[in-house]
Design a protein that fits this description.
By secondary structure, the chain is mainly α. It has 2 helices and no strands. The two termini are 21 Å apart.
């Protein structure tokens, strides 16, 4: 398999996972509230908020990894294409 095809497939996979993670994070943030819970009757709401924040904290490193990987692969593909065109 040619190198550019393999890089294109890898970039597509990284970008697809990145998009899915961004969609997942946006569904989490839809339910996030910026509130201060002072009453004990709202403790369950505070626990739900803390769970949402934990989920978002778990997703954030993966977003950075897949975002950086996607950018790195597209830059590599562009650099290789430029190099190939200059050496012809």
């Amino acid at each position: 398999m040619p190198l550019m095809t393999a890089l294109g497939i890898a970039w597509g996979a990284f970008t697809a996972v990145l998009v899915l993670l961004l969609i997942y994070r946006s569904t989490l943030t839809m339910h996030e509230d910026d509130q201060l819970f002072l009453d004990t009757a709202e403790d369950h709401m505070q626990r739900e908020q803390q769970e949402l924040l934990k989920k978002m904290d778990r997703v954030t490193p993966w977003l950075r990894i897949f975002g950086a990987g996607s950018v790195l692969l597209i830059v590599t593909m562009g650099g290789l294409a430029l190099y190939n065109n200059m050496t012809r």
